[in-house]
Amino acid sequence: MSYRCFGATNCCKGDTTTTTNNNNPGQTKAQEIATDNVKLFSYNSLRSATRNFHPSNRIGAGGFGIVYKGVLRDGTLVAVKSLSVESKQGKDGFVTEIRVISNIKHPNLLELIGCCVEDNNRILIYEYMENNSLSTALLGSKGKHIAMGWATRAAICLGIANGLAFLHEEAEPHVVHRDIKASNVLLDGNLQPKIGDFGLAKLFPDNVTHLSTRVAGTIGYLAPEYALLGQLTKKADIYSFGVLVLEIISGRSSSKVAFGEDLLVLVEWTWKLWKEERPLDIVDPELTEYPEKEVMRFMKVALFCTQAAANQRPNMKQVVKMLSKDVNLNDKAITEPGVYRTHTSKHSGGGSSVETSSSHKNKSKQSLDVPANSIYFDSSEEMLPR
Ligand SMILES: Nc1ncnc2c1ncn2[C@@H]1O[C@H](COP(=O)(O)OP(=O)(O)OP(=O)(O)O)[C@@H](O)[C@H]1O
Ligand SMILES: [Mg+2]
């Protein structure tokens, strides 16, 4: 194992005596982290990189704290995520995030360059992504909006699918992300997507269904079984991925926009249009030209992913195949989506109480078995290997 020290005191390679200080929890953590191949930064080096965390360097803020743009001494641009120290939950998430990310590398996963664990400071240093998040670029206000044609959107969907498939199937140990959403997809200079934020991710051994103690995802992306019952499986990520694909097709945010008189959420709206046999009505009006057959295929994949019955959803490897191959998908196998929502709707009598239901009772047959690959494909299509 190796690590490099960037101006931090007491934590350089081989200096185990200075990193071991049981009276100082920060130092103990530094030693643990050092064994995970993470570069350690001093607080001072990050202060100069971000011009003393100057407000004009601020690029965003989320549940863990503020994100700043920084320039390292060698000129490398970085995103510096400073954890708000008051949050105990945040600290735990920080340590988890470091351990998980440090050894997981994939072109569609945001690289964690290093961290700072000096005194009370808990800071993550990521590669800087020039085009910000998918949320800002695709769903954000006009000033920051980036026009994207279908080819770009399709490549983004496939890139996210590849990154998530890697987390689910290849990473050791396998990882459930728990907060797949547009703001956790960052875009590089070529609009290639990278999934960020593993702070909510948990180590996930094969064939184990976790029951989480708290729901960590974001409203608008939450699989109903996770939101209501706390059942955390890869299938909850796959649900969120399906929602994300619908956002990319429609250019609309699932957590902000309500559709029609009934204030339907994006998934419900898509399902309504699907039943009315006019699914392409959800397509972003900004997309003046697009290949209808391919967009339909992506929409079907999204609908497979957001089905109420978690065990009917495909796994991410199947999703990657469905998105990347020009195959005919089996419409008839798609069952109704599950929805968890909190906003006011006519369904909830106009009150402001939390509505926590699967908006459409799932009348479809629910098999306890994981569906074979063939269920997603027209019978004429080649069967996929498992
Ligand atoms: N590596 C990065 N490069 C460029 N911008 C980034 C990077 N990481 C984060 N950002 C920007 O900072 C914003 C905040 O990110 P952050 O992950 O803290 O919050 P969030 O994703 O909105 O919510 P959550 O805390 O639930 O993940 C992002 O939406 C994005 O605009
Ligand atoms: Mg985030």
From TrEMBL:
Cellular component GO terms, alphabetical: membrane
Binding-site residues for Mg(2+), renumbered to this chain: 184, 197
SUPFAM superfamilies: Protein kinase-like (PK-like)
Example GO molecular function: ATP binding
Annotated stretches, region: Disordered: 338-386
Membrane topology: Single-pass membrane protein
Compartments reported by the entry: Membrane
Catalytic residues (positions): 179 (proton acceptor)
SMART domains (UniProt xref): S_TKc (SM00220)
InterPro entries: CR_Ser/Thr_kinase, Kinase-like_dom_sf, Prot_kinase_dom, Protein_kinase_ATP_BS, Ser-Thr/Tyr_kinase_cat_dom, Ser/Thr_kinase_AS
Domain of life assignment: Eukaryota
CDD domains: STKc_IRAK
Keyword Repeat: yes
Domain named Protein kinase: residues: 53-329
Binding residue positions for ATP: 81
Gene3D superfamilies the UniProt entry points to: Phosphorylase Kinase, domain 1, Transferase(Phosphotransferase) domain 1
Key words, A-Z: ATP-binding, Glycoprotein, Kinase, Magnesium, Membrane, Metal-binding, Nucleotide-binding, Phosphoprotein, Receptor, Repeat, Serine/threonine-protein kinase, Signal, Transferase, Transmembrane, Transmembrane helix
Family membership noted in the UniProt record: Belongs to the protein kinase superfamily.
Record-given protein name: LEUCINE-RICH REPEAT RECEPTOR-LIKE SERINE/THREONINE-PROTEIN KINASE-RELATED
Taxonomic lineage of the native organism: Eukaryota, Viridiplantae, Streptophyta, Embryophyta, Tracheophyta
